[in-house]
Amino acid sequence: MRDLETSKGIQRARRLPDPSLSALWESIIIDKAVKDRLVAQAMLNFTLRPVVDRAVIPLHGVILLVGPPGTGKTSLARGLANRTAQSFKSNDFRLLEIDPHSLTSSAMGKTQKAVSELFSQSIAEAAANGPTIVLLDEVETLAADRSKMSLEANPIDIHRATDAVLVQLDALAEAHPNLLFIATSNFPEAVDAAFTSRCDLVLTIPLPDKEACGRILRDCLTGLGNTFGPIAKLANSTGFDQAAAECVGLDGRAIRKMVANALASSLDTAMHPEKLAIGDIIAAAKAAKQDRSSGARK
Ligand SMILES: Nc1ncnc2c1ncn2[C@@H]1O[C@H](COP(=O)(O)OP(=O)(O)OP(=O)(O)O)[C@@H](O)[C@H]1O
Ligand SMILES: [Mg+2]
Question: The pTM is what?
Answer without folding.
Answer: 0.94
